[in-house]
Structures are given as C-alpha cells and as structure tokens.
Amino acid sequence: MATQRVLDFLATRRPSGPCLVVDLDVVADNFHAFEKALPESKIYYAVKANPAPEILRMLAGLGSSFDTASVAEIEMALDAGATPDRISFGNTIKKERDVARAFELGIDLYAVDSVEEVEKVARAAPGARVFCRVLTDGEGAEWPLSRKFGCVPAMAVDVLRHANRLGLAAYGVSFHVGSQQTDLGAWDKALGDAKAVFARLAEEGILLKMVNMGGGFPTRYLKDVPTAQAYGQAIFQSLSKHFGNRLPETIIEPGRGMVGNAGTIKSEVVLISKKADNDNVRWVFLDIGKFGGLAETMDEAIRYPIVTTRDGDEKAPCVLAGPTCDSADVMYEKTPYPLPLTLTIGDEVLIEGTGAYTTTYASVAFNGFEPLRSYVI
Ligand SMILES: *Cc1c(COP(=O)(O)O)cnc(C)c1O
Fold first, then answer.
1. What is the DSSP string of 201-242?
2. What spacing in Å lies between the alpha carbon of 274 and ligand 1's midpoint?
3. Are residues 168 and 223 in the same domain?
4. Per-residue pLDDT, 123
5. Taking all residues of the chain, what is their mean pLDDT, rounded to a whole number?
6. How far away, in angstroms, is 45 Cα from ligand 1 center?
C-alpha cells in the first residue's frame, strides 16, 4: 500500500495527470531484505524493472550490482556509480557491436544461450566470462518468461564447452523461473538442471563457478505472497540438496521484488458509462491504461490493487479500461474489477504495487498522451 510519504507527496504537490510515485525507503528495505534472505548471494538489480536514476544511484550506494540488457542500461548503471565489475550484460540477444561497446566500457560478464551468441561474444569481448541460460517452464509465474530465453541443459553443456574452446571463461549457468513467481519450489528443478551442467562439464575439466538464479521474486498485489526470507530458505535448501557442501557462487537478479511495492500510480476516472440501459456492468475509464504504463495487464496477467476514497461503499464489478482509441486498451474485462457504486467521474484512484514495469512500458505519445511521469522521493 502507498506509504505515508507517497500520500503526503500527492496531497501537497497535486501533480496533474497520471503519475508514478516511488518511495526510495521501500526500495532500500527490499534491498536489505534480499541481503538478509540470501546472505551468500550477490544482488544484481534488473535495471529494466525501473531504471530511474535515483533508484540506481541509491542501490549502487548500498552495494548492489546490476543486470543490464543494452548498452544504454550499462551506461545508466555506470552513471549511477556502479563500477564495470558490478554490471552484467544479461540479455542473451545482443548485437555484436553492442558487446564490443560493453567490453570497451569494462563489462566482463555476459549471458548466452546459443553457440551463435558465444561466437559473437568471443569475437567482441575476448576472454570475458560467460554464463549460459537454461530454459525453465515458467510454471507458477504470473508473468512467465518461458521459451524465449535459454536452451535445454544438454545444449548449455555444448554452449559452455564452445565458449571454453574459444578462449572465453565458461563461468556458470543462469535461469529465470518466471516473473511474479509465487511457487517457492520453482527454483528447485532449475537448480537441479544447473548442477547437471556443472557435473557434465567438470568431467571434461571445465569447472563452472557461478549460478545466476535470476529474478521472479514477487510483489504483493491482491493476494499475499511469501516473504523474501521464505524464498531465501527454499532456495538455500535446494542449493544444498543439489550442490551438497560445495556451493557455487550465486547471483540473484530481483526486478519486480526490488521496486514493485515501492511505487503507486495516481490516476483519475475519466468516464463511467454503460453499453446498454439494462447492462449491469459499468465501464470505468481511467486516464492510464495498457499504453500508459499498465502493459502487464495484458491477458489480465497482473491484477493491481486499486484504492479509491469510497472503498467503504458497496462495490460492483466493472470493466476497467484506459483512455486511448484502441480497443486493446482494456485492462480487466474477463474478470471484472469490483469498484464502489458511488465512484464518480473525476475521482482520483491509486493503483498500488506499480513501481516495476510501468514507466518503461509507457508509449511515447500514443493518441498524444505523454509517457508516464515519475517522481522518486
Ligand atoms: C527481467 C529479468 C529479471 C527480473 O525479473 P523479476 O521477475 O522482475 O525479478 C532478472 N533477470 C533477467 C535476465 C531478466 O530478464
């Protein structure tokens, strides 16, 4: 829920138009919770979740490392004060000239999931460390990342062997169990796969060192989620189960779990209407929708808590939609959203848990609506 600092900011500044307000204190709390939950793991914040310079600067100051996906994100992390040894180029899909640029900037850690990508890295970043991403099924995740990234473990063996042959440092294995992963057991199978890759390559004298356990740590939306501590315990148990007492170096890359609950979007009700006199479902149109930053409502995947000033009043289901002239800009319809019957055009509503994957998903100017404004306090 919005912190008092966020509520005070909105009450005094009264920004017009939709905006995101991020409370840095909450981000700091999340960072410390991850540190405490997995004290042996290095934290690489996934910059894409929210690259606001204030957030990156604070995390850099707290000692965080950064998972980046492009040269621009690498430069943002460097500008925030991170040294190159604290930055990974974690995208498995990179232009060779971007790898070369990253290497010039001092980046020494790269993700791959194919021999084709290994060849680019070997040419453009000779001698660098690479880790190979293995596929996961994304089950249990509300925003699965599924088949686009990673390869099967048997192929990861080939990819890392090839990297070794080309003079790269075959450094480790990575995976991502899917974003907003609410199944504590999801890391277990992936860690078993990682161990199998370690064991197979060890037989050839290639000694991997690191497991990158990705993101997936959830934000609380409408339902409770387990604590960082609970994730830490489950992951540590699986690590011990698969690796015994020879634990590898580990990395986690929280994005959503680092910033999601730190942000609140303020929005305004533009229209409440019906499609027929005898309709019992109202259509509620906000001044923000899928193109204004709420892209994760796609397929109604992420269901944000919405707070109004009339929440004590009786509620009834509504279709919730954005303001643009695109019929795809409907957020919740298959499962309508209960909102107060007294809700009125012009009312302000707060959309909670929106610190991650909102500002960067907003369109540039669809229908002339400006990108989502953001304040980091
Ligand atoms: C997006 C991404 C993350 C962050 O995932 P969350 O579920 O938001 O924590 C971490 N690592 C990689 C490689 C990613 O692409």
1. HHTTT----EEE--------SSS----HHHHHHHHHHHHHHH
2. 39
3. yes
4. 98
5. 97
6. 8
